Amino acid sequence: MEVNVLDIKGQETGRKVTLNDAIFGIEPNDHVLYLDVKQYLANQRQGTAKSKERSEMSGSTRKLGRQKGGGGARRGDINSPVLVGGGRVFGPKPRDYRFKLNKKVKVLARKSALTYKAQENAIVVVEDFNFEAPKTKDFVNIAKNLKVDNKKALVVLPEVNKNVYLSARNLKKANVETASSINAYKVLNADVLVISESSLETIESILNK
């Protein structure tokens, strides 16, 4: 699949790049995508939710009523879960939600996500660019020139570029990532991928090891 290379003004440069079919043209694996997205979201969880159980509550341990004959559920002290203000039964405890996925699974997930974007013609290849200083207005102008200003865009750069990152930081629909840090969730969550020309080489070198 060939894609025209655009400049930051949105004009065609006359050059074309060929998207590697081994990355952008495979048979997508939906289950692997599900696992990778699930892992990414699980890794974002703090896992700090905590509620007090009966034994952790402060209060008298005096038995409030008879064991039988009261017409209701059995209850002991004031900390009983059946009473308002009592402890909670099987409440949440701090835990780690992270789980492991094999490297090959994660690679396949990224290839599947990129393939879906290629099938949707949602990939824009732009020549490498840089800003002399962080300026959101310049980033917005580029987005307008590339006709992606009204879409949720993931801008993929070959390496960390602080000026470009800071220029896009305050924009809700823009996200800047390096080619080595993209994952299936970020790709699928974007409406369009804006990939710099040099980033394609980095993506191929990482996913075609």
From TrEMBL:
Among Pfam families, the record links this protein to: Ribosomal_L4
Alphabetical GO biological process terms:
translation
Give the domain of life. Answer: Bacteria
* One GO location term (cellular component): ribonucleoprotein complex
User: Is Ribonucleoprotein one of the keywords UniProt gives this record?
Assistant: yes
Asked if the record carries the keyword Transport, the reply is no
GO MF, one term, reads:
structural constituent of ribosome
Q: Which UniProt keywords apply?
A: Ribonucleoprotein, Ribosomal protein, RNA-binding, rRNA-binding
Region: Disordered, residue numbers: 45-77
Q: Which PANTHER family match?
A: 50S RIBOSOMAL PROTEIN L4 (PTHR10746), LARGE RIBOSOMAL SUBUNIT PROTEIN UL4M (PTHR10746:SF6)
Family statement: Belongs to the universal ribosomal protein uL4 family.
Assembly: Part of the 50S ribosomal subunit.
Function field: Forms part of the polypeptide exit tunnel.
Q: What name has this protein been given in UniProt? A: Large ribosomal subunit protein uL4
